[in-house]
Amino acid sequence: MVITKIPANKRSLPADAYTHVVCLPEVKKAMLAASGWPAPFSPPSPPVYEIKSAGRKYSNGLGAFAVADIKPGDLIMQERALLITSRHVALPKGDKGRLREIFLEQCWAEMGHFHRKTMQALHNCYGSDAEPLRGIVDTNALPADTLPGPTDIGGIYSAVFNHLARINHSCSPNVRYRWDIETFSGQVHAFQPIKAGEQLFISYCDLEYPRGLRQEELRKLYRFDCACPSCVLPRYQGRLSDWRRLLIIEQAFQDLSKTDADLRAWATNPRLPDPMLVDAAEIWYGWMMQERVLNSVLLPTVLERLCKAYCALEDEGNARKYARAAAAYEKALEGSDSGWGIVAASPEKTSWWGLRVRARRQQAPSI
Ligand SMILES: C[S@@+](CC[C@H](N)C(=O)[O-])C[C@H]1O[C@@H](n2cnc3c(N)ncnc32)[C@H](O)[C@@H]1O
């Protein structure tokens, strides 16, 4: 492992615009060789969030709050990390754990005043149970999925940010965090409409897990008892929520094999009932929105099917609605709307438009 600062040419940059990275030598070499990387970025200005006290429920800690109304898909926060470490040295016990601490200590020794002061101010849920720097990293790290260079040995990295680290957890989150390799930054997008004053929540655990497992993991890794709206549901409703989450993950595996062929077969065969494809997809979409579980396989599949099906039915309102939802989701997951904004503006220009309506007309007996 080696320690480096990215962007390499940081002379003209403010202190919060560069990151200390603990990585493999091959990754450092690839990062320094990547021309024009990382790309600059501009977070929303003026900022649409503020960091302030979140109150007793969050151990009198801080949280991030919207200061303006925010639409699904909007970028809320974007920030370079203070520190990125490889998870290859992030094993919890034994020599490898100690190895990680040695790298963190070396990194600390190289950090300037801004980075040290900011890191020290972050929350440490481990108290005296861990070495302070390690406790801070483990409390606040978010995934940085890829860095330039050989991905097979680089593995997954953890990033510690200044502001992004203040976002609290909910099992029904309203924003989504993503690592943006192009700009070497963390982004937070809304995937629900958010009102000014509302707190922003990401998820620290796998949302498809049932409540008991989620709570166990949060207690173990972040040392708090989750009291989010999903975790305080009365018993019966809590079970329903667990059940929906389980079905979402099961359906995601099944939907992997779906193609456009069955959608086209339905669209061009008027003898098949209209609700056949639409109703099931609406149920899955409704459950994912209700649980705020954005399954990365099922949600895009369902949104695409709904948009195409409503285009085939020439139902402009619903076609636009699902295209807008797909645009927001893609922005939150991929950083761009993947062309869904164009579909939302003119669904009648897609090749699916009116397919079913024309098939019905052709089938109708001529008088
Ligand atoms: C990454 S920090 C989040 C920001 C933190 N509240 C602060 O003041 O810096 C993670 C810690 O915040 C607290 N936290 C986050 N989400 C919480 C929640 N839903 N309920 C209670 N505490 C929470 C826990 O102490 C957790 O270890």
From TrEMBL:
This is SET domain-containing protein. It comes from the Eukaryota. InterPro entries: SET_dom, SET_dom_sf, SET_domain_protein. It holds the Pfam family SET. CDD domains: SET_SMYD. Residues 46-205 form the SET domain. Gene3D superfamilies: SET domain (2.170.270.10). It comes from Ceriporiopsis subvermispora (strain B).
